[in-house]
Amino acid sequence: MALFNKKTEKKAEFSTLPNHLGIIMDGNGRWAKKRGLPRTAGHKQGAESFKKIAQECDRLGIKEVTFYAFSTENWKRPQEEVNQLMKLFYDFLIEAKENLTASGQVRVRFAGEREGIHSELLKLMDEAEAETAERTGTIVNLAINYGGRQEIVAAVNKLIKEGKTEITEDDISNNLYTSADCDLIIRPSGEERLSNFLLWQAAYSEFWYSDVLWPDFDEKDLHSALAEFEKRNRRFGG
Ligand code: FPP
After folding, report:
1. Cα of 46 to ligand 1 centre, how many Å?
2. Which residues pair with 66 in a beta bridge?
3. pTM above 0.90?
4. SS3 for 208?
5. How far is the CA of 40 from the centre of ligand 1 (A)?
6. For all residues of the chain together, what is the average pLDDT?
7. CA distance 109 to 156
């Protein structure tokens, strides 16, 4: 019944949906600054937007969504901010584990370099991946310690270790953290750049920008992006 509902809603709302959606969660710092709050307050509110939007992607029937949560460059931020972000990821994974109904049918996956991430967080991520693997809902990739260039290099190194001496596009595509093609990338907060996100996957992505800061981003904004995507004429170079 739930599945039936989901399909009906999907048809009624959008004629076409991205199979793989990428979201750059930007503007937390500015959101906090506008309110005279520490940056960490912006990230905390940003985590709420993440949960809301992940749920909405699942309700709409989007197959896969990758959230850019922490880049390989974000380690350069003040230690306190890095710690708080790690704690937010940790808390979310605990919450998802303890409250399976609240996280619906969402499948959680990790996209990024494992080295450098605290072993306790890694353990939780492995558990979340395993415990949600059998679900049928949206695949939610959490890009943590993620860099697009690093991802491609990791894929190539894996292939070298397997003994390959010549590689194809498919070889790389099949060894990325996420699906090979990203159909739509959303970036709020007024910035219009890719910032090392899904470099390979973005080859034929559509882009959608908005001035809304990520902590204020809600279902309505997601719908605006999807409505715009619906109208795009995608030719894939043909
Ligand atoms: C970039 O905006 C945002 C980040 C580096 C962190 C994004 C992380 C979250 C929203 C938390 C997600 C939580 C979970 C549980 C996945 P910025 O803070 O640099 O913004 P600014 O450009 O306004 O300073």
Report:
1. 6
2. 22, 141
3. yes
4. strand
5. 9
6. 92
7. 21
| Measured CA distances, 233 to 116, 205, 206, 229, 230 (Å) | 41, 12, 10, 9, 8
Which region holds residue 166: left if phi is over 0, alpha if psi is between -120 and 50, else beta? beta
For residue 194, the SS3 value is coil
Report pLDDT digits (tens) over 133-161.
Answer: 888 999 999 999 999 999 999 999 999 99
Question: If you take atom 22 of ligand 1, which residue's CA is the nearest one?
Answer: 27
User: Residue 6: exposed, middle, or buried by beta-carbon count in 10 A (0-12, 13-18, 19+)?
Assistant: middle
**Sequence-separated contacts (24+) of 167-171 with Cβ below 8 Å:** none
Distance 176 CA to ligand 1 centre (A): 23
Residues with CB under 6 A from ligand 1: 25-30, 42-43, 46-47, 50, 67, 69, 74, 85, 88-89, 92, 142, 214
**Active-site residue list:** 26, 74
The answer to whether the beta carbons of residues 93 and 129 sit under 8 Å apart is no
Tokens at 54, concatenated: 């992940």
Could you please report the per-residue DSSP string of 67-127? EEEEETTGGGS-HHHHHHHHHHHHHHHHHHHH-TTTTTTPEEEEES--TTS-HHHHHHHHH
Tell me which residue of 72, 9, 66 sits closest to 183, measured CA to CA: 66
Whole-number Å distance between alpha carbons of 234 and 238: 9
- 196 and 22 Cβ atoms separated by less than 8 Å: no
185 pLDDT exceeds 90?
Answer: yes
